[in-house]
């Protein structure tokens, strides 16, 4: 095990520290991918193979990282990605993450499978988005949208790449089930606690989601949802340009180019690889966000140069939370901000708009090495 000496200086340091403090099964749940984890590994390799061509003599004495994402003001081109069960890694759970996001000035996406109800998370004062999976009970889906609106959420994020859960072999081998203190706080009865019991000798989480999620989700349902909320609608999980076109036709406000952090279809292309094509396809008709393997401010800059309006940050948030709760999340976000500001200056960019005009190229990734931990 690599030891971090002194205070963490990079997000990868938080990953190593989190692995030291989390139970092995919880670490696997957070950091693992599906199948042979081909896509999980490829996400990092794709980012490591993408290089920036900086500009010089551009007067970068003043730099701005401020933007708006899906209508929400953001101090960075970044929102916290939807991730289930923050209380699995720290007892303060989503409330701590939301407070850190508020302090950093970035939106926090409350997962449908949050361990803390949206109403309690809203007490943080953070700018909140709310994530949905499509439930077999359409009435329950509509009820969650109404709860999100009543709690003051600024956008709905519909994750569309989970008609069923990917085979996350680490969880199956661990017979992973949530501990008793962790449950789906937006539900009641068996729907809330179903992931606490492994009923088939495999992953209790996989069994639970299979029972709850509706695999019949289609573009017609996106249109149904669009008609039932005035909030900006973000569709997460797009990789094909054809689906990006359909998303625009369905009236969404933004798409997230994503392979679910390598946790769904193993072998799905890294999002950063198809981002330029999707950006060119949709032009400025909708905002385009991206996730998958983002581990540094340099990665954020690469995403902007490749066509993204912003990124979603996932696992590093949970690593910071596991290490030191709210302070850990705040430290991760502060590191990313410092890195992004430095890299913008070094690339000759005073603003995110100038970053979007940077040129990139691809070079071989030496020996398949990745620059950061999962």
Write the topology of this structure.
Blueprint: H1 11-21, H2 24-31, H3 38-49, E1 50-53, E2 67-69, E3 72-74, E4 78-80, H4 93-104, E5 108-110, H5 118-122, E6 128-132, H6 138-150, E7 155-159, H7 169-173, H8 190-193, H9 204-212, H10 219-226, E8 233-238, H11 241-249, E9 254-257, H12 271-282, E10 287-290, H13 297-305, E11 310-313, H14 315-346, H15 352-355, E12 359-362
Helix pairs in contact: 1-14, 4-14, 11-12, 13-14
Entry keywords:
single chain; 374 residues; alpha/beta; TIM Barrel; eight-stranded parallel β-sheet; two-stranded antiparallel ribbon; 15 helices; 12 strands; globular; FMN binding; FMN_hydac_DH_AS; oxidoreductase; oxidoreductase activity, acting on CH-OH group of donors; EC 1.1.3.46
Describe what you observe in this structure:
With 374 residues, the protein is of the alpha/beta class. The chain has 15 helices and twelve strands. The chain has a single domain, classed as TIM Barrel (Alpha-Beta Barrel). The longest helix has 32 residues, at 315-346. This is 4-hydroxymandelate oxidase.
CATH superfamily: Aldolase class I
What is the global morphology?
Answer: globular
The CATH topology is what? TIM Barrel
Number of helical runs? 15
Task: Measure the end-to-end span.
Answer: 14 Å
CATH class: Alpha Beta
Cα-based radius of gyration, to the nearest Å: 19 Å
Helix content: 40-55%
Low-confidence stretches: none
Helix-strand pattern, N to C? HHHEEEEHEHEHEHHHHEHEHEHEHHE
Family: Belongs to the FMN-dependent alpha-hydroxy acid dehydrogenase family.
Domain FMN hydroxy acid dehydrogenase: 3-365
Cofactor: FMN
Active site: 260 (proton acceptor)
């Amino acid at each position: 095990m690599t030891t971090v000496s002194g205070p963490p200086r990079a997000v990868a340091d938080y990953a190593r520290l989190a692995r030291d403090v989390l139970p092995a099964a919880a670490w696997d749940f957070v950091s693992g991918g599906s199948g042979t984890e081909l896509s999980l590994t490829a996400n990092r390799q794709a980012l490591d193979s993408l290089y920036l061509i900086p500009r010089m003599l551009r007067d970068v004495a003043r730099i701005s990282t401020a933007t708006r994402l899906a209508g929400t003001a953001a101090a960075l081109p970044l929102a916290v990605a939807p991730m289930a069960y923050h209380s699995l890694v720290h007892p303060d759970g989503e409330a701590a993450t939301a407070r850190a996001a508020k302090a950093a000035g970035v939106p926090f996406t409350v997962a449908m499978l949050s361990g803390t109800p949206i109403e309690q998370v809203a007490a943080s004062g953070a700018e909140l988005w709310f994530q949905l999976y499509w439930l077999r009970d359409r009435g329950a889906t509509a009820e969650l949208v109404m709860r999100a609106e009543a709690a003051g959420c600024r956008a709905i994020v519909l994750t569309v790449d989970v008609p069923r859960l990917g085979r996350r072999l680490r969880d199956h081998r661990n017979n992973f089930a949530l501990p008793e203190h962790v449950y789906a706080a937006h539900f009641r009865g068996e729907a809330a606690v179903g992931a606490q019991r492994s009923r088939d000798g495999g992953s209790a989480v996989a069994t639970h989601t299979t029972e709850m999620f509706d695999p019949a989700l289609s573009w017609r349902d996106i249109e149904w949802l669009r008609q039932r909320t005035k909030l900006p609608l973000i569709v997460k999980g797009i990789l094909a340009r054809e689906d990006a076109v359909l998303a625009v036709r369905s009236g969404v406000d933004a798409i997230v180019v994503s392979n679910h952090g390598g946790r769904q279809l193993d072998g799905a292309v890294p999002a950063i690889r198809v981002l330029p094509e999707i950006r060119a396809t949709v032009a400025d008709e909708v905002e385009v966000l991206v996730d998958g393997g983002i581990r540094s401010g340099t990665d954020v800059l690469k995403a902007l140069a490749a066509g993204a309006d912003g990124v979603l940050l996932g696992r590093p948030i949970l690593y910071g939370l596991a290490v030191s709760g709210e302070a850990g999340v705040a430290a991760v976000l502060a590191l990313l901000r410092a890195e992004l500001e430095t890299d913008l200056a070094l690339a000759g960019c005073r603003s995110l708009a100038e970053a979007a005009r940077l040129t990139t190229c691809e070079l071989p990734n030496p020996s398949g090495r990745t620059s950061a931990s999962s």
